[in-house]
Inverse folding.
């Protein structure tokens, strides 16, 4: 069976689809998977042994300059239509992913109207699969694949299909960057945690993916001497950094999910988002959640209007993170690394 998977972005969403690819490859002996993904994340599907072809697409970049990219867009359309597939599976459930799936040749399948993130996406499918929305994103992917490809959804432990090189593990990565401002753990907390690690003789590295994240990393490093700011790198470099690390502490971000998928001991910090829906999952993962009256709110903007929350003389924003202190993270990190 030849499958074209449309799972474009973001990094965390791409990682969430990997266990379902493993399930499908185990259930269908002759499965050949091609994957359409945003160009920035093309290195992730390529790591899975069941994926034989990755088709990069650049919707995020093209939308800023459609005319200038006309030749590149034409080449991508030709690549999408080059083969005929038994199933074209839109595992994203968005209008844009449905449009991409519609360009391809094959039976189009995806979430039904009640299950898709954007209900209009389901209009373009030949078959629509109902998957309950209240489940973890990884479980939803596994159920969608099973329904689309005709096998029983397994309850086996997750297998992302990834592995990290057999190399010495050293140091801790503090993944502070995220696209939501409300998901950012306070800088003062990062400084306190980094200081404890460096004073204990542990090497600390701060990755970054934008100018704003670079400036944040520099402020954390300045407050915790001995902390290293990572060099500018691409996703492959991030994968290598995570692979040789002893542990990762991350906010709810793609890097955290990628670390969990690689089998790196990972502590993920959850404030406004719900770990039951998008928590990092893996054999060596612990999700730490805030204990706050309005969390998880699932909101990009904090709507809390109560009394300010202060820790060690610092006002904490968003206030829910006042219940997820560096001391709490340090205790769990020490226990995880020791085990």
């Amino acid at each position: 069976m030849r499958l074209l998977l449309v799972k474009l972005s973001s990094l965390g969403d791409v990682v969430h689809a990997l266990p379902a690819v493993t399930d499908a490859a185990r259930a269908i002996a002759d499965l050949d998977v091609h994957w359409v993904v945003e160009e920035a994340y093309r290195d992730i599907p390529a790591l899975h042994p069941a994926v034989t072809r990755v088709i990069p697409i650049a919707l995020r970049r093209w939308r800023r300059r459609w005319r200038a990219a006309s030749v590149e867009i034409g080449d991508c359309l030709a690549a999408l239509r080059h083969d005929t597939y038994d199933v074209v599976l839109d595992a994203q459930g968005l209008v844009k992913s449905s449009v991409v799936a519609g360009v391809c040749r094959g039976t189009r399948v995806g979430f039904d109207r009640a299950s898709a993130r954007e209900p209009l996406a389901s209009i373009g499918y030949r078959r629509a699969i109902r998957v309950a929305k209240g489940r973890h994103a990884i479980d939803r992917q596994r159920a969608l694949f099973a329904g689309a490809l005709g096998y029983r959804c397994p309850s086996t432990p997750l297998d992302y299909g990834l592995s990290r090189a057999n190399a010495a593990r050293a140091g801790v990565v503090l993944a502070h960057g995220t696209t939501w401002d409300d998901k950012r753990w306070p800088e003062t907390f990062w400084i306190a945690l980094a200081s404890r690690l460096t004073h204990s003789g542990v090497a600390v590295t701060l990755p970054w993916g934008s100018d704003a994240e670079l400036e944040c990393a520099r402020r954390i490093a300045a407050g915790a001497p001995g902390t290293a700011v990572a060099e500018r790198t691409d996703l492959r470099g991030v994968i290598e950094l995570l692979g040789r690390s002893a542990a990762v502490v991350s906010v709810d971000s793609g890097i955290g999910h990628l670390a969990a998928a690689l089998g790196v001991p990972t502590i993920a910090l959850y404030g406004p988002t719900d770990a039951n829906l998008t928590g990092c999952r893996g054999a060596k993962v612990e999700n730490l959640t805030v204990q706050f009256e309005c969390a998880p709110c699932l909101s990009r903007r904090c709507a809390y209007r109560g009394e300010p929350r202060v820790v060690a003389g610092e006002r904490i924003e968003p206030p829910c993170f006042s219940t997820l202190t560096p001391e709490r993270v340090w205790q769990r990190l020490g226990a995880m690394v020791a085990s």
About this structure: The radius of gyration is 21 Å.
